[in-house]
Specification:
This protein is an alpha/beta fold. The protein has one domain: Metallo-dependent phosphatases (Purple Acid Phosphatase, chain A, domain 2, 4-Layer Sandwich). Helices cover 24% and strands 21% of the residues. The strands form 2 sheets. Strands 1, 2, 3, 4, 11, 12, 13 and 14 form an 8-stranded mixed β-sheet that branches. It has a 6-stranded mixed β-sheet with strand order 5-6-7-8-10-9, covered by helices on one side. Helix 1 crosses helix 9.
Length: 410
């Protein structure tokens, strides 16, 4: 075994001893008892050794990489999952929430659009059981809380917008941690902040669309999010789009968006898969391919809290679609090497003279989450090796490297 792989395995084995007993679980039933120590909750399962996952064997390239036309570049990250320690830091730091991601914020500054999964409500004055006096920027464990039912101060939304995020997903297994009223309040705060969102609806308007629209360089993109679950919390008013229960509606919505004359591309962001597993399940692979066949341009998955592979898929009508099965965490208090290793995905799209939008390339910037203080940085050492093993060195981009999604065309 190569020295780098020996080093990676040693680091993983050390990390796994911690992961087996501690890490921030995310698939908790709403009846689970009180939160354990800030960042460390009992794991639902062990983390899969990424060295058992087939390593990337070559670059991921697209037939339309060098196609002439207007280009747009998208940055995408995984879960914004704020455990207690992260919220306490954000509420007391002069830098606020930006203290969590200031080390990687320049990675978003060089793109046209940026996306993240907002994992949990931003519902001021709401507890898990009802309403209460809002404490303000205080982690009180009641209004603003962590695992197993999250809720964040709504100033998080403005901080994400200031960081460069242009659209968020609200469809995930924590979407109803403050029940339907919390989802409503989160939507109100998103609208007030001018942050486009996808995957949930206000209970007062069931005719509202599931999707959001962003535009950059004259290219209009429809974003559509769904989730596998709401952790057993009943969605009595059908406010959250389900990936599997609503599969028919999901696929028909993708097709309808594809056919809209004012939509150039459709990107789906499913919250799915098995936590802590680096290998995507057959169920997710089948749905990803079905969504691309239905008209999606790209599928950007999340929820497993670790990085999963990406692939190119040729649709039934001959298009080249792109899937990454899990982006991993973005910022979280989860423990261990695998759960603190993630990436900023760069997705490049080209709109040709014929009006069609195709993928021109993808790159990955490996990142890692660091404690004390909690902050994300460009990955190094074993974290860099881990993500690079899964996605390959060929499409990796350095922290200070000029962003080009199709370098083979230069």
């Amino acid at each position: 075994m190569a020295p780098a792989m020996l080093s990676l395995r040693a680091g993983l084995l050390a990390g796994l001893s911690v992961l087996i007993s501690a890490a921030a679980g995310c698939s908790a039933d709403p009846t689970v008892g009180e939160e354990l120590d800030d960042m460390e909750e009992e794991a639902e399962g062990q983390t899969e050794d990424p060295l058992t996952v087939p390593a990337a064997t070559g670059p991921l390239r697209f037939a339309d990489a060098c196609r002439a036309g207007t280009q747009v570049t998208i940055a995408a990250v995984g879960d914004v999952l704020l455990h207690g320690g992260l919220q306490k830091q954000a509420y007391t730091s002069p830098e606020g929430f930006s203290s969590l991601w200031k080390g990687v914020q320049p990675l978003f500054a060089r793109t046209d659009l940026s996306y993240a999964n907002l994992e949990g409500p931003c519902a001021d004055g709401h507890t898990a059981s009802g309403t209460a006096r809002d404490p303000g920027l205080v982690f009180d464990g009641s209004v603003y809380s962590s695992y197993p039912q999250f809720n964040y101060h709504p100033s998080l939304i403005g901080a994400m917008k200031d960081a460069g995020f242009d659209v968020v997903s609200t469809a995930n297994n924590h979407a109803l941690d403050r029940r339907g009223r919390g989802a409503d309040r989160t939507i109100e705060n998103l609208v007030s902040a001018g942050m486009p969102f996808t995957g949930t609806k206000p209970s007062t308007n069931m005719d509202a669309p599931w999707h959001a629209i962003t535009e950059a360089n004259g290219i209009r993109i429809a974003w559509l999010a769904c989730t596998y679950s709401t952790n057993g919390i009943p969605d009595t008013k059908k406010q959250v789009l389900q990936c599997y229960e609503d599969r028919t509606a999901l696929l028909s919505t993708i097709s309808a968006l594809r056919d809209q004359p004012d939509v150039d591309a459709v990107i789906v962001t499913p919250h799915w898969g098995n936590e802590y597993q680096h290998s995507p399940a057959a169920k997710e692979k089948k749905l990803a391919h079905d969504m691309l066949d239905a008209g999606a341009t790209a599928v950007l998955g999340g929820h497993p809290h670790v990085v999963q592979p990406w692939e190119k898929y040729t649709t039934q009508d001959g298009r080249e679609g792109f899937v990454i099965y899990s982006l991993g965490n973005f910022v979280s208090g989860q423990n261990g090497l695998a759960r603190r290793s993630a990436l900023v995905l760069y997705l490049g799209l080209t709109k040709g003279a014929d009006g069609k939008v195709t993928v021109n390339g993808v790159r990955h910037a490996p990142i890692q989450m660091n404690p004390a203080p909690w902050t994300a940085t460009y990955a190094r050492g074993e974290s860099l090796e881990l993500t690079t093993r899964i996605l390959g060195v060929w499409n990796r981009i350095g922290a200070d490297e000029d962003l080009v999604t199709n370098p083979e065309c230069e």
